[in-house]
Amino acid sequence: DNAVKYTKPGTTIDIDWNVDEAGKFHLNVRDYGPGIPEGHLEKIFDKYARIKRQDSQVAGTGLGLAIARAVMRAQGGDIFAINHADGGAMFTLVFPCTRRNGTLKVA
């Protein structure tokens, strides 16, 4: 939802995934918007956090990312954001993986 909100209409949003060396599943969502100001990459996960320059342009309460992080951490995962080297922001959701009957499954 945030990738759509903070990117111009018609702009590409990339979604990909990988499994890291620890066996955790990573879901990456990258937009081609303005990115996140340095110093705010962690603050955006605080309750009611908003980036001031975009408050008047984008509707929201500032709770979505705080809730997403709480849910991810409650199940042993995480969520974080970076600014992509080629522009835009990239959010990664990290899900723990388990093996059942020899088959790798996302928890």
Description:
With 107 residues, the protein is α+β, with helices and mostly antiparallel strands. It has a 4-stranded antiparallel sheet, with helices on one face. Strands 5-6 form a two-stranded antiparallel ribbon. β5 and β6 form a beta hairpin. The two termini are 23 Å apart.
What labels would you give this structure?
single chain, 107 residues, alpha+beta, 6 strands, four-stranded antiparallel beta sheet
Summarize the helices and strands and which ones pair or pack.
Elements (H helix, E strand, L loop, with lengths): L1 H4 L8 E6 L5 E6 L33 H11 L3 E6 L5 E7 L1 E4 L2 E4 L1
In spatial order, strands of the major sheet run: 1-2-4-3
The tally of helices reads 2
Largest sheet: 4 strands, antiparallel
State mean pLDDT (0 to 100 scale).
87
Uncertain spans: none
The rounded distance between the terminal residues' Cα atoms is 23 Å
Derived from helix and strand composition plus strand pairing, the structural class reads: alpha+beta
Shape: globular
**Helical amount:** 10-25%
Q: How many extended strands?
A: 6
CA-based gyration radius: 15 Å
The proportion of strand residues reads 25-35%
**Secondary-structure element sequence?**
HEEHEEEE
Summarize the structure.
Helix content is 14%, strand content 31%. The protein has 107 residues and is α+β, with helices and mostly antiparallel strands.
